[in-house]
Each structure stands twice: as structure tokens, then as C-alpha cells.
């Protein structure tokens, strides 16, 4: 019986979260051919047309009839979906004449793009979902230096334009108006709020203000908990951008004893891989005391005896947290409610220790009960022997 009690206790202590089902059957794509900081990792599932390159998270949509595949990068800075017009300098662009269903206005000046182009309506597909009569723009030179268009996700519901996600939501094609970035399992998900395996991890929820700003104070090296500033999350940026005074404090601790060089917003220094653990943690706190942090391993990469720091400074006095933040947290955005939910990746689930404690308690209680029963039984046997 004692053995049985121990087995039952161990079973009871096993985290129940492992039996939860995971539903990613909404609009979801595995990210393949991941390339971050020059390091390429080939995913097992390479059949999907979403991947991460050094600068952006890239998705593939389909435009027109017949459907033509077109690559776009994900951006939160706009709600517009934009394709580059097909031309001799951009042969992979979208040719409106090749679609039998496209309807476009005459060429006009697109103020928000600072270039000329056309406003069009056509069928736009993402994965197995179709948005009929969806409005997008075909630009003559938008982001021509990247040779790619954009899929606007937007932070806010009341600004100009309609995102593809909003169009699907308004036409009852998705369950919820949310999207999520998961750089650990390599998934970009639209349409359903589901933290899945991260549901019991350390979590933090905040409401962003206009243009996606969060009010937080930097409390890391050289920080000041009373200095509340705007913090913005941007999935399209590879770097973290800091106000200059904080950047200087952080960099002083890094390059004071190292030979460092700066190039295109990236600082790189001679170092050993083990040095990364000693670099500063970037931590932030809001007015309610909620804390988020970014470890050095997510803003520093190591290659050929050099450490590359994806941390830079701009003239503005607020923070922008790019790709390193999304390597630290699984993040769900709801532009309609302005809610942002963050689930830390590298965290033992909070409830696991609770389950373990309960299991140990169950083992002890059952063992005590079994011991008492065994003691009483032996006592009765001794009493019978005395009577005899």
C-alpha cells in the first residue's frame, strides 16, 4: 500500500498542463529557413511560405485570379497591404493586367507611401482563407530597396485603412481579431487567441496607447524607475533602440575593456561566447510594478569570436523593442482592444511548482494514513493476543 500511495502521489504531482490540447488550426504558418544575424536554421517543415530573414518576418500572400504568390513583410506601422508593381527592375512584382478580377483606380499619388501607385480591390488569400474585394495598393516604388511589399497589421482600430485580419474578422472568417508571433515554435498566427504551451508561463498584459506606445520605465543598468517613457514594440525591426543616455551607460559597461566597432546600427566586439551571460539584462517596469526583461542572449549574437549587439540609439527619447523582444516573449496583439499579452519563453511554468507541492503533500498525507491504519491494525492484533 505504501508503494501504491507513492505512485499515486507522483501521478498527482505531474503538471496537468501537459494534458492540455493545443489548437493551432486557425490561420497558421510554420516559419521556415530562419535567418537571424546571418545564421541560417533550416526548419523541419520547409513547405510553408513564411520565414524570418535578417531584417523582417516575411509572409506569402496570393493576389488576384489566377492567384499569384507574392512575398510581403509584416509591419505594425501601417494598416495597408502594399505590393510592388511588376517592372523591369522588379520582375517579381504584381501585374494588375494578369488578374481577371482586379479593379483599380487610375494612377494617383499615395501620400502615405510618398510615391505614385494604384488603389485596387481583388481577391487576396492567406493560407486557406480568401478575402474577396479586399483593398490593397500597388506601388511604383514602395520599399523598392527591399524589393518587397508589406502586410500591414496595425496597432489601432480607428486609423486609416483595413488590415487583412480586420477584413477576415468582419466577414466572420476568423474567430478573434488577434495575431501572434512565436519565434520559438516558428509560427505566425492570425485569428485565435491561444497561448497554448505558454499558458502557464510568466505572463504580462498591457493596453497600448495610440500608435502602440506602452508607458514604462527602464530599470536596467543606468536606468531610473521614476523615468516613465514611451516603449513601443515593432516586429519589423531587428534592433532595440534606446534613448541615448541609457544606451551610453549600457555600452560603457560592454566596450570599456573590448575592441569594438560600430556599423549600420550594430556594434560588434571581440569576445568569447561565454561572455554573453555577463552582458546587461534590459529590464522595464510599468506603474503597477509589472516587470518585463530582455536577456543578453536575445540581443547579442556570437560569430567568429565576435559578439554582435543589436542595440542602438536614436535621437528620439523613447524605446523601440524590435526582434530581441520577440525572441524573449510569445506575444499576442489585439488591435481592437489595444491589448498586448506577453508570455515568457524561458520560464518553468508558474503552476508546475504548485502541482509538485500538491503531489508531495498528497504523498505525505496518504503515507500517514497508511501508517496509522497499519499501526491500528497491529495494535488490535496485539490486543487479541493478550485476550487469548
Structure notes:
- The longest helix is centred in the last third of the chain and has 38 residues.
- The protein folds into three domains: 52 residues; 144 residues, Cathepsin D, subunit A, domain 1; 134 residues, Acid Proteases (Cathepsin D, subunit A, domain 1).
- Strands 22-21-16-17-26-18-25 form a seven-stranded mixed β-sheet.
- α1 packs antiparallel against α5.
- With 388 residues, the chain is of the alpha+beta class.
- It has five helices and 28 strands.
Helices and strands in order, then pairings?
Layout: H1 2-13, E1 27-30, E2 34-36, E3 39-41, E4 51-52, E5 57-63, E6 68-75, E7 81-84, E8 103-104, E9 108-110, E10 115-126, E11 129-139, E12 149-152, H2 164-170, E13 179-182, E14 187-190, E15 203-207, E16 213-218, E17 228-233, E18 240-242, H3 244-255, E19 260-263, E20 266-270, E21 282-285, E22 291-294, E23 300-303, E24 306-309, E25 311-313, E26 319-321, H4 323-328, E27 329-334, E28 339-344, H5 350-387
The percent of residues in helical segments reads 10-25%
The CATH topology label of the largest domain is: Cathepsin D, subunit A, domain 1
- Our measurement of the CA-to-CA distance between the termini, rounded to an integer number of angstroms, reads 29 Å
| H/I helix tally | 5
Counted beta strands? 28
Amino acid at each position: 500500500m505504501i508503494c501504491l500511495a507513492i505512485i499515486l502521489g507522483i501521478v498527482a504531482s505531474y503538471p496537468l498542463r501537459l494534458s492540455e490540447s493545443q489548437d493551432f488550426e486557425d490561420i497558421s504558418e510554420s516559419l521556415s529557413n530562419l535567418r537571424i544575424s546571418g545564421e541560417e536554421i533550416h526548419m523541419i517543415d520547409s513547405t510553408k511560405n513564411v520565414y524570418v530573414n535578417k531584417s523582417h518576418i516575411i509572409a506569402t500572400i496570393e493576389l488576384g485570379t489566377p492567384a499569384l504568390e507574392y512575398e510581403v513583410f509584416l509591419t505594425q506601422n501601417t494598416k495597408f497591404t502594399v505590393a510592388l508593381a511588376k517592372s523591369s527592375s522588379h520582375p517579381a512584382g504584381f501585374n494588375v493586367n494578369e488578374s481577371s478580377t482586379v479593379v483599380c483606380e487610375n494612377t494617383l499619388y499615395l501620400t502615405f507611401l510618398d510615391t505614385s501607385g494604384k488603389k485596387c480591390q481583388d481577391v487576396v488569400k492567406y493560407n486557406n482563407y480568401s478575402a474577396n474585394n479586399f483593398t490593397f495598393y500597388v506601388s511604383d516604388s514602395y520599399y523598392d530597396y527591399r524589393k518587397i511589399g508589406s502586410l500591414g497589421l496595425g496597432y489601432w482600430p480607428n486609423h486609416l485603412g483595413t488590415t487583412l485580419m480586420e477584413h477576415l474578422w468582419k466577414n466572420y472568417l476568423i474567430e478573434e481579431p488577434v495575431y501572434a508571433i512565436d519565434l520559438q515554435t516558428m509560427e505566425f498566427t492570425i485569428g485565435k487567441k491561444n497561448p497554448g504551451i505558454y499558458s502557464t508561463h510568466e505572463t504580462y498584459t498591457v493596453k497600448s496607447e495610440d500608435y502602440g506606445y506602452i508607458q514604462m520605465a527602464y530599470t536596467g543598468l543606468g536606468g531610473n524607475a521614476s523615468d516613465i517613457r514611451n516603449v513601443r514594440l515593432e516586429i519589423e525591426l531587428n534592433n532595440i533602440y534606446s534613448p541615448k543616455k541609457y544606451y551610453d551607460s549600457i555600452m560603457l559597461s560592454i566596450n570599456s575593456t573590448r575592441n569594438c566597432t560600430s556599423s549600420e546600427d550594430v556594434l560588434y566586439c571581440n569576445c568569447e561566447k561565454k561572455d554573453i551571460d555577463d552582458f546587461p539584462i534590459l529590464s522595464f517596469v510599468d506603474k503597477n510594478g509589472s516587470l518585463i526583461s530582455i536577456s543578453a542572449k536575445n540581443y547579442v549574437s556570437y560569430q567568429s569570436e565576435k559578439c554582435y549587439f543589436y542595440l542602438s540609439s536614436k535621437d528620439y527619447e523613447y524605446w523601440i523593442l524590435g526582434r530581441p523582444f520577440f525572441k524573449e516573449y510569445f506575444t499576442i496583439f489585439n488591435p481592437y482592444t489595444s491589448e498586448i499579452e506577453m508570455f515568457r519563453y524561458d520560464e518553468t511554468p508558474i503552476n508546475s511548482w504548485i502541482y509538485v507541492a500538491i503531489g508531495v503533500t498528497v504523498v505525505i498525507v496518504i503515507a500517514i494514513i497508511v501508517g496509522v491504519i497499519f499501526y491500528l491494525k497491529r495494535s488490535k492484533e496485539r490486543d487479541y493476543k493478550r485476550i487469548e
